[in-house]
Amino acid sequence: MTTSSSSAARSPLEELLPATRRALLHRIAVAQSEGRAPSLVAAVARDGRMVWSGSRTSVDGHGSHADVQYRIGSITKTFTAVLVMRLRDEGLLDLADPLEKHLTGTRAGGATIAQLLAHTAGLPAETPAPWWERTPGGLRPELTDVLGERPHLHPAGRLHHYSNPGYTLLGSLVEAVRGVPWAEALGTEILEPLGLDRTSAQPIHPHAGGWAVHPWADVLLPEPSEDLGLMAPAGQLWSTARDLCRFAVFLAEGDERVLGAGSVAEMRMPSVGAEPGGWESGYGLGVQLSHVKGRELAGHTGSLPGFVAGLWVSVTDGVAAVALANATSGPLCGSLAADLVEIVAEAEPRLPEPWRPLPEVDERLLGLTGPWYWGTHVYGLRLLADRGVALEPLRGAGRPSRFKAAADGTWTGLDGYHRGETLRVVLRPDGSVSHLDLGSFVFTREPYGPDASAVPGGVHPEGWQGV
After folding, report:
1. Average pLDDT value for the chain
2. Of 293, 294, 292, 270, which is closest to residue 282 (Cα–Cα)?
3. 270 pLDDT exceeds 50?
4. How many other C-beta atoms lie within 10 A of the C-beta of residue 453?
5. The predicted structure's pLDDT at residue 6
6. pTM
7. For 149, 312, 362, 460, which has the most beta carbons within 10 A of its beta carbon?
8. Is the peptide bond before 233 cis (omega within 30 degrees of 0)?
9. How many CB atoms lie within 10 A of CB 365?
């Protein structure tokens, strides 16, 4: 057994407390023991850096650590999705484009790029036999070999049906647009800029071997490690706990060298809900989404014969966790990673940013703050940084939203029901403020006040009445 923590000099507030480190170690020890994994390694990042790693092994003197490679399976899909989003941000494609606009001859060209990213293109979950994860990729040399005779099982856009072949198509799309192999694009566009020098399409020493553990006896069987060929963009990669912590931080914060914060936030937005009768989680654009004990998590899980993996990040808590094991049906690394996030977030809650006054006062904006009424529902408007505003119900149920200031004097909704909607100030002929218009919803300073012309449908001429 080995344990370790990041040794770089840090302030005491950046270090995890001894009790937290002990709880993390105990959790992975239970996972390795009960999951009967030859080895297991995990790591936690907080506020942008790895702050803990630990491992357990069944072989004395051969403990794993945060720089040992494991196969990460479908976490590879998130890397492929980032490559596609880069093409979108460069204006080389649109997510609404049908695949055939950029990649012809697939027999699935009517599906949009967004549908492929979100697993809503209606494609099969797997390739035709033999099972692609335990056989050489050379058995499927063409895209038609990957999709088989029935490229569509469901109408495109109707439901979430996880599709490994769909990500093969996305990898081939990247190659078609970039003009270089998927692995080359991955290296130059993601791995090198983010410093993920221990992430690769082929294993690099030191790396773990993949094992099957007998279900009824404590004995092992080596699993094959195949080059997946065209299926590589769906599950080929090898990586380490340290590299995946860096990648998790990128999924939370973005990096302008790869993909900006707005685009990674778009990837984390739900595209679909749970699959009927299937996962409890939703899915964004190449990113799995889950609510665990009230905490919103984004990331991905992965498995290939001999390996299981999990990566989750809680953007709100600033905490990410990775868990990797080398057993086919070993620990539930997705659940384990979620538990590690919870341990740190609950034991050492994130400190809020200190309150600071706004850098300047705009008297016109200041005059808009305070109560506003949508019908008889009372809302409060307050100023945010960078001339943004928040509109929140002051009592009862409602639809709170934050808004970003636009150059034309309006605001655009950032979240909730009003995401993307426009909030604007409507003036009277004399220049005074009449009301706020939010996507046709009218907010007035008084509930159904005397300025009846501002209220859709008008106000009864006799006004408010008693019994």
Report:
1. 92
2. 270
3. yes
4. 9
5. 42
6. 0.90
7. 312
8. no
9. 16
